[in-house]
Amino acid sequence: MTKQWSLLVFCASALAFTPASRERRAPEFPRGTFTTTIARGDVPADIPDETATSVASPWEISFTDNGKLIARKDGADVVRGDYAATATSVVFSNDSGEYACGVTGTYAWKLDDKNLVFTKSDDSCAGRVVVLTVHPLKPKS
Questions:
Q1: Please, which residues have CB within 8 angstroms of residue 65's CB and are 6 or more apart in sequence?
Q2: Per the confidence metrics, is the pTM higher than 0.85?
Q3: Residue 30 has pLDDT above 50, yes or no
């Protein structure tokens, strides 16, 4: 009877010290402003020179709570658009501005520590692909 009692006490203790927060929840797409700096040498060789030159710069990308984004190059707003995110992917659409692509882009996303990492799923906009995928986006401090 002592072995059974010990096992029961052990199991009860284990359950008592298991936090309910250990349940897996789908990650939520991060809101806020993220930064990256693209150097000319970061741009893949198959990207046209004009695009490569235009994306080589410091960038800030802000994701709002209401599904809007603003991309800034050298501090100036150059793209405004929409995004819709799930636990693993995000779709960028309805963009406007000097560097707008005019096409929808789909990416997988994940957080690596606090950095936002995008992987292209489907996007024909070379500049957006470079800005979002060459380096992880770091939260603005």
A1: 31
A2: no
A3: yes
